[in-house]
Design a protein that fits this description.
It is a single chain. The protein has four domains: 63 residues, Dna Ligase, domain 1; 84 residues, no CATH class; 112 residues, no CATH class; 38 residues, no CATH class. The protein has 379 residues and is mostly helical. The N terminus is likely disordered. 27% of the residues are buried. Helix 9 crosses helix 10. Helix content is 50%, strand content 6%. The strands form three sheets. It has a two-stranded antiparallel sheet with strand order 1-2. It has a two-stranded antiparallel ribbon with strand order 3-4.
């Protein structure tokens, strides 16, 4: 006898409900997993977008921008909103684009710190540096920046541009003012001009300031920087303070990497001790500037010059400083590293302005060939 299937049998109903319940649980679990994957995808995309946005903002806020308004005053009116200030600076080409600065001020900065006034902005300048200037505030004065390693010829040109006189004073006339060594005579009785003693820094001068006032201020700053104990330190090295300034000026023109300066100093001292010409090309550049023919290129005729400044041809120190050294270069000249290095050449692998140092001519020549090959490719 066959048993008929009863759909209404409780056991069958329970089994069906159980299967439906398991199916629903599986569907719910799959849905939750898909939802989690979707949320994770959204989070990853958000993090990636945020990271890319942050990188874009960082790069643009720290990117130096060149402009032609460094000699002009830009007025920020009282009561200006941060948006209005940024728009003014963008229209004056101080900012390449207003958007990175606006975003920074909106979400990370403090617009309330921005001060009204008349500003002079260096060129190049980054948006973050612009914001710092605006937060610091400025009165109406002349901002005079003298970079490290500038010669008196470079400084005379800047003074002629920045300090207008009536009648206008030429670069030649300003250079003549720099031939007055009375401000430094007690420190350097052999000085024929103020080269090396016009300290590189940023100065704030009245609007009616004259070039001679700026020159006096720069020399006074040099004297403030020079420490009394450095006289004795120079004596221990067998050098006069003047010779230390000469060596510091050479170091300043050879490297901007602070930790390298004592190494460059060691090469200079080692070569002086062995009677080897220093071979510093910036002394040849200085000759061209003295003779009024510098065209930003070193020519073969320059290297053959019979000027005593030509350290390619003549051993020993040049007759005087060739630039304005910073405090760190003076300290390096007073505290050279103890090495056997006699050579150095630009490190073209790093390309950060650093150098490779060598004790032998053979290793130097190999490195020099790499540098010259790179130089040809750049040209």
């Amino acid at each position: 006898m066959h048993k008929t299937h009863d759909r209404n049998n409780p056991e069958n109903l329970n089994a069906k409900v159980s299967r439906n319940s398991n199916h629903q649980k599986l569907s719910d679990k799959l849905f939750v997993m898909k939802l989690i994957r979707f949320i994770l995808l959204i989070l990853c995309l958000a993090l990636l977008s945020g990271g890319l946005f942050g990188l874009w903002l960082y790069v643009n806020l720290n990117k130096p921008h060149f402009h032609d308004k460094s000699n002009q005053f830009i007025q920020i009116p009282k009561g200006s909103t941060s948006e209005e200030v940024v728009r003014i600076l963008a229209s004056e080409q101080i900012l390449q684009s207003p958007y990175p600065t606006l975003i920074y001020l909106r979400f990370f900065g403090n617009p309330g710190k921005i001060k009204a006034g008349d500003y002079q902005f260096n060129s190049p300048i980054t948006p973050l540096q612009v914001i710092q200037e605006l937060e610091k505030g400025q009165e109406k004065f002349i901002k005079l920046t003298i970079p490290e390693g500038w010669t008196r010829f470079d400084i005379a040109k800047r003074l002629a541009e920045k300090l207008p006189t009536n009648p206008p004073m030429s670069e030649k006339q300003i250079l003549d003012l720099m031939n007055d060594t009375s401000l430094i005579k007690d420190f350097d009785p052999l000085a024929k001009n103020l080269e090396g003693y016009l300290y590189p820094s940023t100065y704030y001068l009245p609007l009616n300031a004259k070039p001679q006032e700026a020159i006096k201020l720069m020399v006074e700053q040099f004297r403030k920087i020079w420490q009394p104990e450095w006289d004795e330190k120079a004596k221990q090295l067998g050098r006069t303070p003047r010779e230390i300034v000469i060596i510091a000026s050479l170091i300043e023109t050879e490297t901007k990497i602070e930790e390298e300066k004592p190494l460059v100093a060691s090469v200079i001292y080692n070569r002086l001790k062995k009677g080897i010409p220093l071979g510093i090309d910036q002394t040849v550049v200085y000759i061209a500037k003295i003779e009024g023919r510098w065209d930003k290129h070193i020519n073969v005729s320059d290297l053959d010059s019979n000027s005593p400044y030509n350290t390619r041809k003549f051993p020993g120190l040049p007759p005087g400083p060739i630039a304005s050294p910073s405090k760190s270069s003076i300290e390096a000249a007073l505290n050279p590293s103890q090495t056997d290095y006699l050579y150095y050449v630009l490190n073209v692998q790093k390309m950060d302005g650093s150098h490779n140092f060598h004790t032998s001519a053979e290793s130097f020549e190999k490195d020099k060939q790499i540098y010259q090959k790179w130089l040809r490719q750049q040209r």
